[in-house]
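Fig. S4 source data, part A: sequence.
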Amino acid sequence: MNAQLTETAPVTVKQILDRYERDCLDELAPRTQTDYRRHCEHLRRLFGHLDASQLEPRTFAEYLNGVKRGRFERKRRLAVLSAALTIAVRRWWLIKINVLRDVEKPRSQPRTRLITDEEFAACRALAPHRVRLAMDLALLTGQRQGDIIRFRWANIREATVDGRTFNELHLEQSKTGKRMAIEITPELEAVLDQCWQLQGGGHAGSEFVLATKFGRPFTSAGFRATWQRVRLKWERSGGSPLRFHDIRALAATKCATPEEAQRLLGHSNIQMTLRVYRRGVERVKPLQVKRLPTASASTSMTH
């Protein structure tokens, strides 16, 4: 009966993506859900009409190996499709194999661009006031754009540790679910004070630290669009390409140690911190010894 149904009603890629989005994405972190839904929409436009049982590795060759720009974004989208096809094979039994497992993908290389303090300051000077504040928050807290635009005043709390009382900004990272408390230093407090005074900001009753003039939080798409205008203005002025996420790497690189950077960024694995975000030169001191070992006469003659 199932074989007859497969012959008369082939399952399309769109049907698999629709079911994957409906039944599986709630298991992921909120930020990942947002990204995956965006990828699913793109995939439906390109491959949604195809019979999933007739897919071949070469189906994706042109898409994956097209122009170099955006290649790794295409790789990420196919990773989402691969996850959906795997579920369709193992859980729903809609198709027999996931052909994307046999597709060779380009290896991802971590971004190595480290922006300088001068570049940060020059780009910041071109940005509107709210984007400048977002850049400052990103540098001081090391957090992602999606978390910064969701900082709330209610999440600033008093803490006492070892007899010292101070304020902390509490958050739960939307991508990983990591719960953090960032101490509010005088530098961070000064930026928060400016956020409080924004039109529509905390003084006007907004619950969000980086509020729009209407007191609402930025949407991810809205902030990205605003940042893109700043980025284009920066590049047209002669600046090298700069991503907002590069500020997170700058924050990690400015930390005194990799371990401090790992804690600030909220990574569970220090290898992620080292491989992707610590982009400067790791400076080390030579080994301190009282006296260097010397070779014996017989060893010297032998060698």
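Fig. S4 source data, part B ends here. The CA atoms of residues 124 and 132 lie 6 Å apart.
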